[in-house]
Write a structure and sequence with these properties.
- Chains A, B: This is NADPH-dependent curcumin reductase CurA.
- Chains A, B: Residues 15-334 form the Enoyl reductase (ER) domain.
- Chains A, B: Keywords: Oxidoreductase.
- Chains A, B: InterPro entries: ADH-like_C, ADH_N_2, ER, GroES-like_sf, MDR_fam, NAD(P)-bd_dom_sf.
- The structure is a homodimer.
- The first copy, chain A, is an alpha/beta fold.
- Chain A folds into two domains: 3-121 and 307-335, Quinone Oxidoreductase, Chain A, domain 1 (Alpha-Beta Complex), CATH 3.90.180; 128-279, Rossmann fold.
- Chain A has ten helices and 15 strands.
- Chain A has helices at residues 49-53, 128-141, 157-168, 180-189, 203-210, 224-230, 246-249, 260-269, 283-300, 316-323; strands at 3-9, 22-28, 36-45, 74-81, 91-94, 101-105, 110-111, 148-151, 172-177, 194-197, 215-219, 234-242, 273-276, 307-311, 331-335.
- In chain A, strands 3, 4, 5, 6, 7, 14 and 15 form a seven-stranded mixed β-sheet that branches.
- In chain A, helix 2 (128-141) packs across helix 3 (157-168) and helix 5 packs across helix 6.
- Chain A is globular.
- Strand 13 (273-276) of chain A pairs antiparallel with strand 13 of chain B.
Chain lengths: 337, 337
């Protein structure tokens, strides 16, 4: 019998999650049935959406039960296969959850294709975050040449792709990030036209100055006070794809006034489009198109990305909780083995 | 020299407008220049959007200046014409503002076409309110057969058309209205599948019961507490055309909590589309299509409408201020002469 490790949800967080909300356990790996594959996890992707799974508040997906294994996507090596599509040594993506090994149905796995870019991009620039940026911008944001696209968490895996795609498609990219290092990266490395530090006291007026023609597309992945600064800048027929609200995940607003009327009034006044989405809406029909469009650009370095790779499976909880307050810099990935 | 009457904005309202915010005046009608038409106003349309024009808060249109004539659309008879397209006796729609007579450029006028329905429908069921309903539902709401469409102010000119179109296009129509009389009209006369009185203490739970399969399209024309009850009922991929927020027009929310996070979370969780619009976005390309589609149905009685016609130009301010709190029943129109 093979023993592996997993991380389960020990308790639901009250506000910001702490490492104590998780528990590291050993478990006995079952034997693979016909159609199943035994895999060893190489990399675990840590993503903001996982915060939602820790809570039993209404969400777009069911919560992880207490004592249940945390959900997550991983890059794995096939050890043994009882499925025709996979052989030992194959590299696959799968939803193993936070585990070091797993036995999964082969039908839920996908061979990793990165067009020559490093394996880890399969959960970053060429995975769910990159595809979230590409599909949300392409199908909802629809930037036209010369328009202004703004995005927060601009040094992160979604935001960095949004801005680079905006530039690629002929628009102006304005990034919002937290701290001088991230801002410098967004401007100097990623080539955004402007970047604003959301921690600055005069953040709202700086953002306005950086968007002299207003904002045509705001790619919403954080919520919170960034939204308040963006709202008055949105142009007529502005589009707002909403893929995440990380500023809200740890609890409700600290505002003592009702901010809804201002938002609804702006939506009416400016004929805005606000559209929530999860990338799974577009993936079945468009993921392959994304990969063949963006894969070679990532492999060649035309599109840049940054990863924050943490060593050691046992460090996943601390890395995850830090990420929720901006403690990482780049796509957060745990190197498991 | 001919003398006519006009109503100007005497002062900006602080909260709910009062008749004292208006002033009735006489003015000397100018002579028509080449290309202009002298017209006599038969009917003045009173509409909620006019509340926005009284305020100097940011809006989608410039405010009426103090001492300026209130804006508005009217149905008029041509008295004298110096424009080739118009002859004395023609019935036209025009933006004269709140006036009994006017001299306007002929290029801004439009012959009234009602397919045999009464003239007044040109500012109601077959005018701006009807077209708002038709275009918002057709291009944004896009109800599919069997889906549930909910609309507030369901006895009003926009809401009544939204529900009837929803039925015509194969969806289920749930109306929200204020008071037993309006509710009975919506259910019994307009043929909505269900109607809920928003003044009921258990309004939210009644609305939920009336929408056992949730809400696929919520046509937003009021805002306020109706939105709070609708929000948890919206289905995945729900659509929310936003054409008005009459509950907000007289001042900001009375909520002491921030309602924005719940709205943004629902948008994300349910992949909602929220889209503000003004009917002028669609009118140039689609008004004729609307008129030929809906005109004959209104004329034949297949699509029903109700008008609240107030006699006497001088009564416009009181009728308008009452409408903003639901005091009218049907499309509010002032019979001027």
């Amino acid at each position: 019998m093979t023993t592996a490790q997993q991380i389960v949800l020990a308790s639901r967080p009250n506000g910001a999650p702490k490492p104590e909300n998780f528990r590291l356990e050993s478990f006995d790996l079952p034997q693979a049935d016909e159609g199943e594959v035994t895999i060893r996890v190489l990399y675990l992707s840590l993503d903001p959406y996982m915060r939602g799974r820790m809570s039993d508040a209404k969400s777009y997906a069911a919560p992880v039960p207490i004592d249940g294994v945390m959900e997550g996507e991983t890059i794995c090596e096939v050890l043994k296969s009882r499925h025709n599509d996979f052989s030992p040594g194959d590299i696959v993506r799968g939803r193993t959850g936070w585990r070091t090994m797993a036995v999964l149905k082969g039908d839920g796995l996908r061979h990793v294709e990165t067009h020559g870019a490093p394996l880890t991009t399969a959960v970053g620039a060429l995975g769910m975050p990159g595809f979230t940026a590409w599909s949300g911008l392409k199908f909802i944001g629809q930037p036209k040449e010369g328009e202004t696209v703004a995005v927060a968490a601009a040094s992160g895996p979604v935001g960095s792709m949004v801005g680079q795609l905006a530039k690629l498609w002929g628009a102006r990219a304005v990034g919002i990030a937290g701290g001088a290092d991230k801002c410098a990266y967004v401007k100097d490395e990623l080539g955004f036209d402007a970047v604003i530090d959301h921690r600055a006291d005069d953040f709202a007026s700086r953002l306005a100055s950086a968007c002299p023609d207003g904002i045509d597309v705001y790619f919403e992945n954080v919520g919170g006070h960034v939204w308040d600064a963006v709202l008055p800048l949105l142009n007529k027929y502005g589009r707002v794809p909403v893929c995440g609200l990380v500023a809200h995940y740890n609890g409700s607003s600290t505002s003592e006034t009702d901010r809804l009327p201002a938002t609804m009034s702006a939506i009416l006044r400016q004929s805005l489009l606000v559209r929530g989405f999860i990338q799974t809406e577009f993936a079945p029909d468009h993921f392959d198109e994304f990969l063949s469009d963006i894969g070679p650009r990532v492999a060649s370095g035309e599109i840049k990305y940054r990863e924050d790779i943490v060593e050691g499976f046992e460090n996943a909880p601390a890395a995850f909780t830090s990420m929720l307050t901006g403690g990482n810099f780049g796509k957060l990935i745990v190197k498991v083995s």
